Amino acid sequence: MSLPRVFSGMQPTADSLHLGNYLGALTQWVKLQETHDAFYCVVDLHSITADFEPEVLRQRTRVTAAQFLAGGVDPERSTLLVQSHVAAHAELSWVLTCLTGFGEASRMTQFKDKSQRYGTDRSGVGLFTYPMLMAADILLYQSHRVPVGEDQRQHLELTRDLAQRFNTRFGETFVVPEPYIVKGTAKIYDLQTPDKQMSKSLGGSGCLYLLDEPKVNAKKIRSAVTDTGREIRFDPAEKPGISNLLTIYSALSGQTVEQLEAAYDGKGYGDLKKDLAEVFVEFATPFRDKVRQIVADTEGLDAVLARGAERARTVAGETLATAYDRVGF
Ligand code: ADP
Ligand code: NA
């Protein structure tokens, strides 16, 4: 019996994943690969919708793939691919672009936000057609489930609409994918502004980049914003800073939040931060070493990505051939 398919991707737009990417996405990918036929993609085509430098992009693509591997994505079990290695992504996206209404695409809130932020002259058309490329990524692999954060929900809704539209007009071709959130997925907040999610767009001293010097991150944790109270209690509304630290501590140590609350009963915020800084360093140091090792083995990493691309081309090529045929190509 074949396993349900899952597809997910991350853009190679930073020198390092941050802890939110790791706990909110990568650890879920690692779990999902046990019960799914998973396709995990470094979406480099998407990343050129914003400013980029070719050599930086090339390096980030490799380091991003290396972080997937170091985090536990198993290339024997899952398909790890770089989007630009599989031409079918760009090819199917054109067909889907032609099936998307101009008004429909104009309603995408991410496009509206970003084009407003950058202005229409600095925004490429790729920013507008981004969701159709994302739809192609997902539909090419006949994905049943797509783990997505809130920010990608509208794009997945469009993907479902496009799959249904294509199937209705040209005959059953695509699996209509479902959004999928693994139970217990952590949301990580910025250490300095704990009402906002940790994000590379905020960056700065509230964001823990996994590949940064461990002592830099330890310092960020020790300087995290807390409230003026004394009690170490999980209460996101009243104590967002402390609650965020407890979430991180729990995820990295495997202890439950209740266990941590009990362990820190009567202790101060400083104790919690100091201990969490150590827990983080114990996690990040071997992760960082592993990433470096994987990146240093150029041939080994190339071979893993070549195998992933080959498997991906087989699956995606079959879907594309059917879709092209149905369209009349
Ligand atoms: P960023 O917000 O830093 O640009 P991305 O949008 O590239 O991050 O997100 C990549 C993946 O990481 C997505 O699956 C997203 O849902 C997840 N993710 C990003 N930030 C967080 C966070 N603070 N907490 C949990 N998951 C997150
Ligand atoms: Na984001």
TrEMBL record:
EC number: 6.1.1.2
Reactions catalysed according to its record: tRNA(Trp) + L-tryptophan + ATP = L-tryptophyl-tRNA(Trp) + AMP + diphosphate + H(+)
Binding site for L-tryptophan: D137
Listed SUPFAM superfamilies: Nucleotidylyl transferase
Localization, UniProt: Cytoplasm
Keywords annotated in UniProt: Aminoacyl-tRNA synthetase, ATP-binding, Cytoplasm, Ligase, Nucleotide-binding, Protein biosynthesis
GO terms assigned for molecular function: tryptophan-tRNA ligase activity
Highest taxon above the source species: Bacteria
UniProt keyword annotation of Electron transport present: no
InterPro entries, A to Z: aa-tRNA-synth_I_CS, aa-tRNA-synth_Ic, Rossmann-like_a/b/a_fold, Trp-tRNA-ligase, Trp-tRNA-ligase_bac-type, Trp-tRNA_synthetase
Binding residue positions for ATP: Q11, P12, T13, G20, N21, G149, E150, D151, I188
Regions annotated as coiled coil: none
Record carries keyword Aminoacyl-tRNA synthetase: yes
Gene3D superfamilies linked to this entry: HUPs, Tyrosyl-Transfer RNA Synthetase
Function: Catalyzes the attachment of tryptophan to tRNA(Trp).
Family: Belongs to the class-I aminoacyl-tRNA synthetase family.
Assembly and interaction partners: Homodimer.
The protein's name: Tryptophan--tRNA ligase
Origin species: Motilibacter deserti
